[in-house]
Design a protein that fits this description.
By secondary structure, the chain is mostly helical. 79% of the residues lie in helices and 0% in strands.
C-alpha cells in the first residue's frame, strides 16, 4: 500500500508522514509538489526527532538524498511513520486503550 501510494500520489504519502511528524499535512504535501528535496529533508529530521532518534544526517545530505532518490526516501519515511503508529496503537490496546484486540488480530 505504501509503495503504491508513493508511486501514484507521493504528495498524499508526504502529507500522512507530515501529520505523524507534527506538521500540517496539506502544507507539506502541497509544498512537496513545488520543492520536494527541501520539504523531504526537513520532514525526515522532524520524523527522527518525533521518534526520539538521532537525526540520520546533516540537512544538506538529506536534501541530496531526496533530490536523487525521492521515491525511496518517501516510501521509507511513510513505512516508518506507519509502523510507529501501529506500534503505539498496540501499546494502548495492551494497556486497555481504545483499540479492541480483534482489530489487532486483523493486521
Amino acid at each position: 500500500e505504501t509503495c503504491l501510494l508513493c508511486y501514484f500520489c507521493p504528495c498524499v504519502l508526504v502529507g500522512r508522514t507530515a501529520r505523524f511528524a507534527g506538521h500540517s499535512p496539506w502544507l507539506c504535501g502541497g509544498l512537496w509538489c513545488l520543492l520536494p528535496p527541501c520539504v523531504g529533508a526537513v520532514l525526515r529530521q522532524s520524523l527522527a526527532r518525533r521518534l526520539a532518534q538521532e537525526p540520520p544526517h546533516i540537512l544538506w545530505a538529506l536534501f541530496f538524498n531526496h533530490l536523487f532518490c525521492a521515491p525511496c526516501s518517501i516510501c521509507q519515511e511513510g513505512r516508518l511513520a506507519k509502523a510507529s503508529r501501529v506500534y503505539a496503537e498496540e501499546g494502548r490496546a495492551a494497556k486497555g486503550g481504545d483499540l479492541a484486540p480483534a482489530a489487532l488480530m486483523e493486521r
